[in-house]
């Protein structure tokens, strides 16, 4: 059933994955072709973080209004919410392959519109189109891979989708760096995003539909032909029998995917419990703060005290690289250690990392360099108006207070001798920025000089190292295998929609939160949410390692709480294997 569970899965799934791929490269071809949907997801997440630095330079209205910055980032997420919701319906009605082709088309259109946008309005429209494509691809790619994978290596192959997400993020930072000196900087960064969509569109034209979807639609001979290319000859009949049993169960329940209602889903115990675990994981994946790091990584680096755009992008490249490395670690451990253990280890490390980041940013903001009247007067009439009218209170001004001035916006020009010494508080415009840099000083508008900046980078690196192998990959794996076949498309769409709605909330609120309560308290808030997430995983998420998808359904039917995650699964399927 669904490929079966074989002895030794715990210790050899990773090797088995590469062994099978070597013997039957067709499996890997299916996984990586569909996984380019993950690459699109990752590229868009990463590219906007660097492009935003230069969009702010080109469009002054964007630089002045945090809401516009958040909208440029989050409108892609809003589009993805719609895309994920429509994607569930498209997957069940027209198939996984067709949904991916539509996603590629929308993504390509969006990339062209963004690259040619004359102003923020059209740029935001392009972001919505890209979001529609990313939303569809985000829930379809792991579904397609899961349904075209043997159960014993399903987790490892679905993890390739997560690897391509993080690989796309890493690639986006490389592209960002490559175009920092090119005319039109951000236009190239966003326009290149259309290439992976074209590549996937071409590859998917020559790949088959999901065999399980085909069988579900009565196209049995096509399904058998594809399964015969995926499984050894002696396992094909077992797979066909499993699919036949699953479809017959659907007919008995009179619950075809086209007639599914939310009420029916919630009334079905296994679906309700599966949705609780699947949707809950997707929501917590976002609310522990990952996409604040990926969307705003260069901005966070600048908040930590690194002034240069190029430096911020280069240092952000390190976090993107660690993210990609973490997903490789996930491929190795997910079928060996198990989904639940990996999630708990991941969240424990995330909590520690967010605590460190909160402490570092608290120290950074409370020990920023003072504003010197001597240094400020050196620049003549360019003094920040708020500082100039502060009178006796000007002696209490430091860099952070200078950057919070808003009538007009002000910037901090660091001391020429040492960036940690008292500097000048000046009006923020191109003229003062040029004057400051002409004297070989550093110019700050988004963060202040700090001796704790490197600690913030360490905190970010630790966060990514712990997040990526567990909370980065496992929610997608669990959602690809926790729902019965007849509900998988619609439930996967619900879970992906939950992920994107949470993503939208976090992306649209992060900069506003840092401005309202400070960066330190914002990361502390994410840390508290991570503690809640850890308790949720401990109680509500089942261990699905190595189980056929039908067995997952039986496990959900038996109980709803899953405290004993350290015990090996003892399913009826395993018992059948042992008695056989």
Automatic annotation (TrEMBL):
It is found in: Membrane. The chain crosses the membrane at residues 30-55, 67-87, 99-118, 124-145, 157-179, 185-207, 274-297, 312-335, 342-361, 452-478, 490-511, 523-541. Pfam families: Sugar_tr (PF00083). It is a multi-pass membrane protein. GO terms for molecular function: myo-inositol:proton symporter activity. NCBIfam families: SP. Residues 30-545 form the Major facilitator superfamily (MFS) profile domain. Belongs to the major facilitator superfamily. Sugar transporter (TC 2.A.1.1) family. InterPro entries: MFS_dom, MFS_sugar_transport-like, MFS_trans_sf, Myo-inositol_Transporter, Sugar/inositol_transpt, Sugar_transporter_CS. One of its GO terms (cellular component) is plasma membrane. This is Sugar/inositol transporter. Keywords: Membrane, Symport, Transmembrane, Transmembrane helix, Transport.
